[in-house]
Amino acid sequence: MNRTRIGDVEEWLLGLRLLEANGRATCPLFLKPFHLATLAIALRKLKAEDLRLPDQVRWYARRMDLWSAVGMNEPQPAKHGNPSGRYLPLKPVTDRDAVNQYARDITTIVDQQYVGAQTLGSVRLMLIELLENCFAHALVSEDLPGYTCAQAWPSGRLAQVAITDNGLGMRESLGENPELAPLLIATNSCELATERYVTSKPDRHSGYGLALARELVEQNQGNLLIISGNEAFTAGVGYTRRLDLSVPWQGTIVVLEWNTDRPLDSKAIYDEWTKAEGERNGDEPPDA
Question: How far apart are alpha carbons 189 and 170 in whole angstroms?
Fold first, then answer.
């Protein structure tokens, strides 16, 4: 199954701009979580009361609870089976109390890979921090929440989580930390956000969420894509790419994709971080 490219998202953002301008837009025949999460924000901004989708994709949007997530009446509500391990329907991120549950629900998708308690726990903490960013940096509200959803495609051996908001954006948010100002002058802010310990609020956030996400997908040969304002960054094993977009997004989009037939070993990452931290502090190696 094909991974999501920056060009795929940029093309979709152009469609959302047309939707905001004239109420009509083309829709791809295969939707992923990032399509729905960004569409939900666009519909909330428009205060849309009606939505017409092609027949080929309407069933997926229904199953992912698009209409109810944006507060619209759906003529024929979807009937869900048990989604555990396959998908998380679209959820508005407005309530901090719900963040833990959303992270647990998404982690059930990871659990299908039998990765062990260590990785499940750290992936859940990573997701909690990424979702918490909607409150810490995006200033979400009941009127315009952030959104998240996830999907696993077993036959395609791929899973995707999308987290979106319409808030400050990476550059403005990171700019609140004076120590980062020199770095932001010449650095893509989305890439900078994936560096360890980088955070706009060092007194309240560890800054490890996106760093762990990046290293996990590189280890797994997956894909991390971040878009904020007119900046974009993507990373995977052996590649990184940063560029400016012709169609900016107000706020931030995080798309995390991993191969479901490959391991997610967070313990190895944490062990390397611990070793690097010890070397930085001048500690003796364990076997010295």
Answer: 6
Which residue type, as a one-letter code, is found at position 120? L
Question: Which pair of structure tokens corresponds to residue 94?
Answer: 């407005």
The DSSP 8-state label assigned to residue 64 in this structure reads T
Q: What is the signed CA dihedral for 188, 226, 171, 141, rounded to 10 degrees?
A: 180
pLDDT tens, 34-81?
999 999 999 998 888 888 888 888 889 988 999 999 988 876 655 655
Question: 263 near 113, Cβ under 8 Å?
Answer: yes
Q: What is the pLDDT of residues 149-172, one digit of tens each?
A: 999 998 899 999 999 998 889 999
Residue 67 CA from chain centroid, whole number? 21
Edge to edge, what strands does the sheet with 87-93 contain? 87-93, 146-153, 158-165, 239-259, 223-236
Which residues does residue 69 pair with via DSSP β-bridges, in sequence order?
none
What structural domains and CATH numbers belong to the chain?
85-280 (3.30.565.10)
Which of 183, 211, 181 shows the shortest CA–CA distance to 195? 211
Residue from 213, 220, 194, 222 nearest 122 by CA: 213
C-alpha span between 173 and 262 (Å, rounded): 34
d(CA 92, CA 69): 6
List beta partners, residue 235: 224, 240
Q: Which residue has the tokens 């070793």?
A: 275
DSSP structural state of residue 178? G
